[in-house]
Structure formats: structure tokens, C-alpha cells
Amino acid sequence: MINKQPPTKFENGQWTAFMHIGSSNEADGSVIYRNTDGQTDFFIGWKKGRWGVDGKCYAEARGRDHWWSQGSSDYMLHLLNNAGNSRSENSNGYKVSLHINIHI
């Protein structure tokens, strides 16, 4: 059985990879991780694109509860709609990098 959920946590300085499997209408998603210090949240989102091409992803680090107090699903979709297939950012003392590969 394949777990369709991203990992629930990974340690500081480590990296993670996961495969998101779904039908053509279910290949979009996002997760928010909180650092163990409890002060930094990491948003990771992905969007399959049309017919499995032009996949987009977005990642960033912000202060605790940034997305719950400032963001909304529309805000997160806006970030994804204007993203590319890779994202790398240094913010809040962290480097966040993400790349999306689409396989149909």
C-alpha cells in the first residue's frame, strides 16, 4: 500500500521527498510544517498543471501561524498560480528549496 500523505516531519538539516499520487483532478496539494522550535512554519504547495505538464510548486518559511492568520486558500492558490517548477528561498534563517516533477 502506498501512503498518499507527505511525511509528517523531518529533522532540521535533512531533506525529504514524497510522491503524491491521485487522479488527474487530485494531484494538487499543500502542507505546512512547523519547526521544532515552534517559531517558524514552512509552506510547501504543488499544482499538477493541465494534462500533467507545467507543474508548479511553491515553498517559503515564515513566522509561526503566518498562513493561519494572514493566508487563506485563495492566497495559497495565488502563490501557486504564479510559481514555476522550482522554488528556492532564504528567509527567517532557513533555506527552503522545492522542485516538482510530473510523471503521468
How would you describe what is shown here?
This protein has a domain at 29-99. The model has no long low-confidence stretch (mean pLDDT 75). The protein is globular and about 40 Å long. The chain is 12% helix and 33% strand. A hairpin with an 8-residue loop joins strand 2 and strand 3 (56-63). It is built from 2 helices and 5 strands. It is mainly beta and 104 residues long. It has helices at 66-69, 73-81; strands spanning 29-34, 40-47, 56-63, 86-91, 94-99. It starts with 28 loop residues before the first strand and ends in a 5-residue tail after the last strand. A 3-stranded antiparallel sheet has the order 1-2-3, with helices on one face. The protein has a two-stranded antiparallel sheet with strand order 4-5.
Helices and strands in order:
Blueprint: E1 29-34, E2 40-47, E3 56-63, H1 66-69, H2 73-81, E4 86-91, E5 94-99
Antiparallel strand pairs: 1-2, 2-3, 4-5
